[in-house]
Design goal:
By secondary structure, the chain is mainly beta. It contains one helix and nine strands; from the N terminus they run αβββββββββ. The longest helix has 26 residues.
Length: 207
Amino acid sequence: MKIVRRLLIGLLAAANVALILYAVTWLKEPPQSIDAANVTVVKAPKQTEPMEHPDFVKKDYVLVLPEGTNIALGKKVEASSFNDVYTPRKVVDGDTAGISYWEGKSDYPNTLTVDLKQPSKIHAIRVALCPDPAWGKRTQTFSVQISEDGNKFTDFIDSKQYTFDPDTGNEVQLIFEDIKTRFVQLSFTENSGAGGGQVAEFEIYSK
């Protein structure tokens, strides 16, 4: 009986080992092939001390404002809609930090209109979001209209999709030949980062 018992124990142990080996083989991930076309090769620079590869160094963005003065600062501003506390007056307060921005509702087109108080010669528009990296890269599509009386607007800059990227200041600058107007309006039809248009500062420059 002892011999039979030992034999059975030995057979059971062998069976368990076989099952474990089979399970390991079955669970092992199949080899994956790598397509050479999807591999980027970066040549390592010669170095005599620890250093960061120049291709991976993130350059600091230096903000260069348009020439002249932002005459939209502190002026009256209206919007077709806004969400929660993100009111239109925040786009002319000179601040892009925190919650100091306007956000329209998801009822495109969203319009944002600044009254310059009197007809003025302008040559540049700067549309900015908060430059903090927490504001991820996004696109916004908008056009620009102008008006003398605030009622009848004419198209000035056609609708276009613009990229707002924290790596480049989260801003878009539109430079053009001098034009005289009192009201300047942005009309948004798309924002990949929110349900409506977003602007932290709507700046209008005059020399």
